[in-house]
Amino acid sequence: MKLGFSQAEEDFRTECADWLQGQMAGEFADIKGIPGLNDEIERRKEWEQQLAAHKWSCIGWPEEWGGRNATLGQQVIFAEEYARAGAPGRVNHIGVELAGPTILAFGTEEQKARFLPGIAGGTQIWCQGYSEPNAGSDLANVRTKARLDGDEWVVNGQKVWTSLAHYSDWIFVVARSEEGSKGPKGITFLMMDMHTPGIEVRPIRQINGDAEFNETFFEDARCPADSLIGTPGDGWRVAMGLLAFERGVSTLGQQMGFRNELDAIVEAARANGLANDPLVRQRIAKAEIGLRLMRYGALRMLSNTDPSQIDGAALTYKIQWASWRRDLGELAMDVLGQEGEITEGEDYEWSMLPNMFLFSRSDTIYGGTNQIQRNIIAERGLGLPREPRGDR
Amino acid sequence: MEFAFTDEQGMIAETVQAFFRENATSEKTRAAMEGDGVDRELWTSFCTELGLAGIGLPEEFGGAGLGMVEFAIVAEAAGAQVAALPLLGLATAAQAIAAGGSDAQKAEWLPKLVSGEAIAAAQGIHTLDVAGNVLSGDVKYVPHGAVADVFVFIRKDGAWLVRRDMPGVSVAGHTTMDQTRPLATVSLVNVEAEPLADAQAARDALHAGGWICLAAEALGGAQEALDRTVAYSKERVQFGRLIGSFQAYKHRLADMMIDIEQARSAVYWAACAVDEASDEAPLALHAAKSFCGDTYFMCAGNMIQLHGGIGFTWEHDAHLFFKRARSILTMLGNGDWHREQIAGLVVGEAA
């Protein structure tokens, strides 16, 4: 057990920190530290391409596909330095963190050659077509249909909560390909071009006034027969494999965003005197403890190389960070007071902390609600009986 | 960076977990609770047969070397069975002597503490009268104080060794809620105490060792409370169903696991930070002590609730966990105090 980094790793830290800080002070200074994922999309695509040109876009991937074969320690360091430099949220994080690793793990050589360069190169932006109006917590209840017609799949149905769909180039879709099948059987995992005729995107306005999520409609949208990953009807296995990637090194980058939010709360408390309030100090300390334990939980999860062991740190991570951030939002508003309830301008647009307060109410819902997380923890982690179903 | 046990650490964990599971039985612990709070047979095997008392203490004075990570592994396993052992004294008093004692003090005490021939206890004496090295007053709430042969007492400006048999020392044990770690009052009347050579080093080591020991015991106890409750929920049937199939029950167990996983990160983060002399050590120690104490109390309370009536009986072991958890909450600084220390580090001192 060791927390410190080796000299070689510290050298790597210097290398990536120098490069990232240079970029954020120079050519890309205009997008340094911008919050949210919805702003400056074109510039952020250019940033993805700049990362790729210097082999920083997907350092954990194999070298032949544009990565650096980076060790775990190096990936941790890069995530930390990326956030420390104030580099913007990755506009293609779904491509780099979900689609790419899924194609690497389950795709054919042709699919790797076709998709990975675009993802690594920052020219193909991806989104995720999982949830549907009747398949939220019960994800296996998807009803979007895929039918093979000659050498093409024909897709009909609706996805919802597709974040970033409005500027994505590609989407991966789980669709029911076997008529009359139920639950996780008979589902196929397809990759579709978002510019395909028959695909339509409608933004959903959220409680913070912004619209990062969308509804995505498929009406006789077609894609080639070889657009699937795995085999027809076997898409659930691929979809679940993908969700495991969601708990990768990217969590450390996410935590650096949380660090900025907590620091901003501390700053606000210093400015208005609440930093002297013993109750506020207790809550700040609790938030600090929670954030640190998130980091060391993630490091435990990433250091765990024995896939046969149930990894408690990984299993509990989602509900841990989501609940932590919801509480952080409440702390932010208590510290800001009524100053947090008015906008700076006339538009319904919020600065970082009030926006985080509002947005954090989605953290405990998307990617598996807290209630579903507790079911999963109890059933997979503790071996308790599964929830009864009403329909099968 | 590798935040997982090495093979050697994994083997130590397996060995000590098996040792405590087999030897620190409920029956033996309850026998110790009726007496002075020490399972002597267990303590002898712990010190002599397995040589576990030397973990984290220097080899040249009879210790086994290794560090706080390995000590935490031992304390976690002991805590899981609520073992009636004076383990905390090894983490506090022995660590203080090893870090701040003179060579003569180390040579005199460490071999005896490692072999189990002597038992040590420690406490802060911030309100005592101190004139030079002469101590007077009552030192309250000394854990396992009634069975200790030597005490380490600390305050802001000093650290002292006091032998039980020094003139002016008398000890009175108390009936204590947690009977596996009874508290005592040590009364001092003009006791000519022996100063530890490096008081600052002694204090730091005492705090680090004590907080890690309590946090690790709490982690082990919380995990065991969860495991035993899960096992019960898979046996007990009501309304024609296993009670573990009810969502209200499942979610409470899940909440226990969520906090226990964080407690595990906290204990080993703090232990690593101390072993690696990291700048993060103070923050990690305060986080571990406060978070693990809260986690254990929540889990032990749930253990009683989720067992229903049987969990409230003297016969069931749930109250052993619950009382140890309650005692850990206050011992060596309560959660609010530790969190205030963290606020001081993060926000700065309050004006």
Describe the protein's topology:
The complex is a heterodimer of chains A (392) and B (351).
Chain A: H1 7-25, H2 41-53, H3 72-84, H4 93-106, H5 109-120, E1 126-129, E2 145-149, E3 152-160, E4 170-176, E5 187-193, E6 199-204, E7 213-224, E8 228-229, H6 235-245, H7 250-272, H8 278-303, H9 312-315, H10 317-336, H11 352-363, H12 370-381
Helix pairs in contact in A: 1-3, 3-7, 4-5, 4-6, 7-8, 7-10, 8-10, 10-11
Chain B: H1 7-23, H2 26-34, H3 40-49, H4 68-80, H5 87-100, H6 103-115, E1 120-124, E2 129-131, E3 134-143, E4 150-155, E5 158-163, E6 169-173, E7 183-192, E8 194-195, H7 199-233, E9 237-238, E10 241-242, H8 247-275, H9 281-307, H10 318-330, H11 335-346
Parallel strand pairs in B: 1-4
Antiparallel strand pairs in B: 2-3, 3-7, 4-5, 5-8, 6-7, 9-10
Helix pairs in contact in B: 1-4, 4-7, 4-8, 5-6, 5-7, 7-8, 7-9, 7-10, 8-9, 9-10, 9-11
Give a quick rundown of the structure.
The complex is a heterodimer of chains A (392) and B (351). By secondary structure, chain A is α+β, with helices and mostly antiparallel strands. In chain A, 46% of the residues lie in helices and 13% in strands.
Task: Report on the architecture of this protein.
The complex is a heterodimer of chains A (392) and B (351). Chain A is α+β, with helices and mostly antiparallel strands. Chain A folds into 3 domains: 7-91, Butyryl-Coa Dehydrogenase, subunit A, domain 1; 126-233, Butyryl-CoA Dehydrogenase, subunit A, domain 2, CATH 2.40.110.10; 247-381, Up-down Bundle (Butyryl-CoA Dehydrogenase, subunit A, domain 3), CATH 1.20.140. Helix content of chain A is 46%, strand content 13%. Chain A has 12 helices and 8 strands. Chain A has helices spanning 7-25, 41-53, 72-84, 93-106, 109-120, 235-245, 250-272, 278-303, 312-315, 317-336, 352-363, 370-381, and strands at residues 126-129, 145-149, 152-160, 170-176, 187-193, 199-204, 213-224, 228-229. Chain A has a 4-stranded mixed sheet. In chain A, helix 3 (72-84) packs parallel to helix 7, helix 4 packs across helix 6 (235-245) and helix 7 (250-272) runs parallel beside helix 10. Chain A starts with 6 loop residues before the first helix and ends in an 11-residue tail after the last helix. By secondary structure, chain B is α+β, with helices and mostly antiparallel strands. Chain B has a domain at 201-346: Up-down Bundle (Butyryl-CoA Dehydrogenase, subunit A, domain 3), CATH 1.20.140.10. In chain B, the strands form 3 sheets. Chain B has a 4-stranded mixed sheet, with helices on one face. Chain B has a 4-stranded antiparallel sheet with strand order 2-3-7-6, with no helix packed on it. In chain B, strand 2 and strand 3 form a beta hairpin. In chain B, helix 4 (68-80) packs antiparallel against helix 8. The longest helix of chain B has 35 residues, at 199-233. Chain B starts with 6 loop residues before the first helix and ends in a 5-residue tail after the last helix. The mean pLDDT of chain B is 97. Chains A and B meet through helix 3, helix 7, helix 8, helix 9 and helix 12 of A and helix 7, strand 10, helix 8, helix 9 and helix 11 of B.
